[in-house]
Specification:
heterodimer; A: 217 residues; mainly alpha; MetI-like fold; B: 225 residues
Chain lengths: 217, 225
């Protein structure tokens, strides 16, 4: 098992890369579609609704395989890593958009009215008043979603991204030490979630709360 | 290789996909039933008088919740035979899904129980109701509506995670699509069909859950019609 340690470590690095890339993508998508969902323009609103319902209604694995195996039919060949990140980002973006929407709706009405009465432009109202206040509201559910994302990154192994899961499977087929290699992989995922990702997200929550608190004074 | 959508091929594979869809629904149903029961056990195991036992159980739940279902599937499927327990892919899949979502379900139950106000317990104590009577007639009827949305969401969640079972060879929808695709070397139609089937099943299911949530709230008098 020792000689395979480095392989697992490299796989872990890939998993971390997939996680970070898809995290950035899903946060951006959530923001855009969360705002679009609240648009008064029916076209923009229905585009966002269709997007959200579509990606929440179909399975992530199906989307992943679609991106990797079906898109080439349309002349779009994505690298496995890109296909994985795009599918993860789009899928979790749909869930995130709903969180953002709920967060914006949870900002007290008085804030909107105050911004309105101060004659802020709609863009400024959203950017300077509403968005900074949604973070303390959306971060706890977003943290849960991000842990789900870490778990979901395991699926990219099935479209041949050489991540932790892929390596564990590979080592299993060489050595047949299933308990050791899958057990180690499970432990690594657990450590990543419990001792890296969750503390980071908690830190963000504290930061966001403090920031809003300061701005109030 | 012919490009574009082929309707004849679609019709050819449709019966196969329909049968596989039934397997997917069966897998989701059985997995859900197991998860409901396992969740109850996890919940009870966290509410024993022994603090250490409760803590160990919480850690187990945390561990299962923060590791990927995919590797758990591999773990159960490949490791159990090492200890002389050989189970079919179906059984392994159902056990793993039941365990994985059972931990989520226990959190739903826990949240629901904690959502019932403490004063309800105190009132029952004052009226000298037994613990069992308190649970059965006072606490559970109030906890149930709180648990409904979570329970419904995980039903849809399990349904959407069943494609993972294909990785250990359970013959559900996604497995059928991969097999058909590999055989004919055409993935466009099978995978697209899978997507459409999932959409047509999970969107009504999600809507039904939302309606159920509303109905329960109305019957509890929490919101008006």
């Amino acid at each position: 098992m020792n000689e395979h340690g480095i392989t697992l470590l490299l796989g872990t690095v890939t998993t971390a890369k997939v996680l970070v890339c898809s995290m950035v993508l899903y946060v951006i998508i959530s923001m855009i579609f969360g705002l679009m969902r609240l648009s008064k323009n029916p076209v923009i609103q229905s585009i966002a609704t269709i997007y959200i319902e579509f990606f929440r209604g179909t399975s992530l694995l199906v989307q992943l395989f679609w991106a990797y195996y079906v898109l080439p039919f349309f002349g779009i060949s994505l690298e496995a890593f890109t296909a994985g990140v795009v599918a993860l980002g789009l899928n979790f973006g749909a869930y995130g958009a709903e969180i953002v929407r709920a967060g914006i709706l949870a900002v007290p009405k008085g804030q909107w009215e105050a911004a309105h009465s101060l004659n802020f432009t709609p863009a400024k109202r959203i950017k300077r008043i509403i968005i900074p206040q949604i973070f303390p509201i959306i971060l706890p559910p977003a943290a849960n979603l991000t842990v789900e994302l870490l778990k979901a990154t395991a699926l990219v192994a099935l479209v041949t991204v050489v991540d932790l899961t892929f390596e564990a499977k590979q080592i299993n087929s060489i050595t047949w030490l299933s308990a050791q290699c899958f057990g180690t992989a499970l432990l690594i995922y657990y450590i990543m979630a419990r001792f890296a990702l969750v503390p980071f997200l908690r830190w963000l929550e504290v930061l966001a709360a403090r920031k809003v608190g300061k701005e109030k004074i | 290789m012919e490009m574009g959508w082929r309707w004849d091929f679609t019709y050819e594979i449709l019966p196969q996909m329909a049968i596989a869809t039934l397997n997917t629904i069966l897998a989701a149903g059985v997995g859900y039933a197991i998860a409901l029961i396992v969740g109850l056990f996890f919940l009870l195991a966290q509410r024993t008088p022994s603090k250490i036992f409760n803590w160990v159980n919480r850690e187990i739940v945390e561990f299962i919740r923060s590791t990927p279902l995919l590797i758990q599937l591999f773990f159960v499927y490949f490791v159990l035979p090492q200890f002389g327990i050989t189970l079919s892919a179906w059984v392994c899949g159902m056990i793993t899904i039941g365990l994985h979502f059972g931990t989520y379900m226990s959190e739903v139950y826990r949240g629901a129980l904690e959502g019932v106000s403490k004063t309800q317990w105190e009132a029952c104590r004052a009226l000298n109701f037994s613990t069992i009577y308190t649970y059965r007639r006072i606490v559970l009827p109030q906890a149930f509506p709180i648990a409904i949305p979570g329970m419904g969401n995980y039903l849809v969640g399990i349904f959407k995670d069943t494609p993972l079972l294909s990785t250990i060879g359970v013959a559900e929808l996604f497995h059928a699509a991969t097999a058909v695709g590999g055989y004919n070397y055409r993935y466009l139609e099978p995978y697209t069909l899978v997507g459409i089937i999932f959409l047509t099943l999970s969107i009504p299911a999600a809507m039904w859950v939302r309606k159920l949530e509303r109905d329960v709230n109305i019957s509890q008098g929490k919101i008006k019609k």
